[in-house]
């Protein structure tokens, strides 16, 4: 892919949610039965779906992103970002990727790996997980348990940062700033470019 200085590629989740139109939403792995009942993320159905999604995205990255151009020689400049299930998939994918594709890192907002998800890391990867203290779906104590599980999958947990305070967005921006190296000073100096601080 021949992309400009900084590129954002947003991939849609592949699993339709039963009883909903395509425009209404999709999931990264099965979350609901055909009757609309929850499928636990720890179930074999969800785990199998996560594995299928991982293979699809991995194939896409290998065939379309890392195949030629600047990303072939600099996979460490590729960052994965996801929210909720997307964050879970980003974490899972980063841990499972081949050492030859040493991506720059992962930012997951409210997305954690459940017990049984993910594989032992094949290489070191930098991770930032952002989790709010007032999330009604995931109390801080559960987030801490999930953090311990994730640390157990990583080669070195020093590369894991968890933000659980009001400065979450600043931590995300600092993570991106420390990992994204391509900049265009001339473009940044243009009068119609506004920097969000």
TrEMBL record:
Name the Gene Ontology molecular function terms of this record: carboxylic ester hydrolase activity; palmitoyl-(protein) hydrolase activity
Gene3D superfamilies xrefs? alpha/beta hydrolase
Q: State any GO CC term.
A: cytoplasm
Which organism is this entry from? Rhizoclosmatium globosum
Q: What is this protein called?
A: Phospholipase/carboxylesterase/thioesterase domain-containing protein
Q: So which domain of life are we looking at?
A: Eukaryota
Q: Which family does it belong to?
A: Belongs to the AB hydrolase superfamily. AB hydrolase 2 family.
| Domain (Phospholipase/carboxylesterase/thioesterase): residue spans on this chain | 69-179
Against Pfam families, the record matches this protein to: Abhydrolase_2
């Amino acid at each position: 892919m021949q992309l400009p200085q900084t590129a954002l590629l947003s991939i849609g989740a592949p699993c339709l949610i039963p009883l909903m139109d395509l425009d209404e939403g999709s999931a990264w792995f099965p979350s609901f039965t055909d009757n609309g009942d929850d499928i636990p993320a720890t179930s074999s159905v969800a785990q199998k779906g996560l594995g299928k999604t991982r293979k699809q995205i991995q194939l896409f990255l290998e065939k379309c992103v890392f195949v030629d151009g600047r990303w072939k020689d600099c996979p460490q400049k590729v960052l994965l970002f996801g929210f909720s299930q997307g964050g879970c998939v980003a974490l899972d994918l980063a841990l499972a990727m081949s050492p030859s594709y040493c991506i720059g890192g992962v930012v997951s907002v409210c997305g954690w790996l459940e017990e049984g998800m993910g594989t032992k890391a094949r290489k070191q990867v930098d991770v930032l997980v952002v989790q709010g203290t007032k999330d009604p779906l995931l109390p801080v104590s559960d987030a801490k348990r999930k953090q311990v599980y994730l640390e157990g999958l990583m080669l070195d947990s020093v590369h894991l940062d968890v933000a659980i305070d009001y400065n979450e967005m600043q931590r995300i921006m600092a993570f991106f700033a420390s990992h994204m190296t391509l900049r265009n000073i001339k473009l940044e100096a243009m009068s119609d470019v506004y920097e969000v601080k």
